């Protein structure tokens, strides 16, 4: 904050020089001010900017970005591959009903727990 | 928001608006801070083109950190004066030894009435004397006696204690007196002025 009035007494014998110095302050040209303004606008953050395809952008961000999408894609491909060409071991397991019961995540025990 | 309506906002608030994408805040801040930074740089460098470069760079830095600015932690002007002074110091270091005879540039575009001429001559003499001071003394004197800042704010800008600022300005003033008081008569100043 400018405090020239209160400073004048502190200027002492140099008051006339400081006063002249304050009045002779250089002013920037209009062109230069336009350049400064252009810089300010050019570098201004645009946090609310929406671009085309932003729905996909939002979905991508919601899923956790490209690394997550890559992981999901790999998992999906693996699932499709296993479905198309299941390993022999899996076929054996599927034919054995007891194995399926052992790995059933919603077994009778879980239902009992959910029922309180 | 219209430019006039921005007058009621302080620098911190305007910078926050700027960071949120308000173009009016960008214009208002530029109009408010640009001339101030330029004037300060001009006083430290005594070179219009270099002062423009420094002003542009200082403001670019402000725009770049606007989104991360922590309102209330530091005054925008204090930060800007500090950045400006550092940029000026860099320029002066590069210039040193190659441009010692630089003549202070004082604009001459107002009506040439006697009083105006004398004011301009005094301002020119002051600028020439300022340029003979060590950089830190010059910066402290300009901030205190021309920009009109208080010692605590200058201390923040120069990263010094207030006592050190007082010492710098006192020494700077003493040096200026030695350089200028002998010219009082020829600059139209008499003992009763």
Salient structural properties:
heterodimer, A: 116 residues, mainly alpha, 8 helices, disordered N terminus, B: 193 residues, Rna Polymerase Sigma Factor, Chain: A, Arc Repressor Mutant, subunit A, globular, RNA_pol_sigma-70-like (chain B), DNA binding (chain B), transcription regulation (chain B), RNA_pol_sigma70_r2 (chain B), DNA-binding (chain B)
**Continuous helix count of chain A:** 8
What summary fits the major beta sheet of chain A?
A: none
Q: What structural class do the secondary elements of chain A suggest?
A: mainly alpha
Would you tell me which CATH topology of the largest domain in chain B applies?
Rna Polymerase Sigma Factor, Chain: A
N-to-C SSE series of chain B?
HHHHHHHH
How many domains of chain B, as an integer? 2
- Percent of residues in beta strands of chain A: under 5%
Low-confidence stretches of chain A: 1-7
**Largest β-sheet summary of chain B:** none
Q: How many separate helices of chain B?
A: 8
Q: Count interface residues per chain for the largest interface.
A: A-B, 37 and 54 residues
Q: What oligomerization state is this entry in?
A: heterodimer
Describe this structure in words.
The complex is a heterodimer of chains A (116) and B (193). Chain A has 116 residues and is mostly helical. Chain A has helices at 4-7, 15-23, 30-42, 54-63, 66-84, 88-95, 97-103, 108-114. Among the domains of chain A are: 55-85, no CATH class; 87-116, no CATH class. In chain A, 66% of the residues lie in helices and 0% in strands. Chain A is rod-shaped and about 105 Å long. Residues 1-7 of chain A have low confidence and may be disordered. Chain B has helices at residues 11-19, 23-45, 48-65, 76-95, 114-130, 135-146, 151-158, 162-180. In chain B, α1 (11-19) crosses α2, α2 (23-45) packs across α4 (76-95) and α6 crosses α8. Chain B has two domains: 8-95, Rna Polymerase Sigma Factor, Chain: A (Orthogonal Bundle); 113-193, Arc Repressor Mutant, subunit A (Orthogonal Bundle), CATH 1.10.10. At the A-B interface, α2 and α3 of A face α2, α3, α5, α6 and α8 of B.
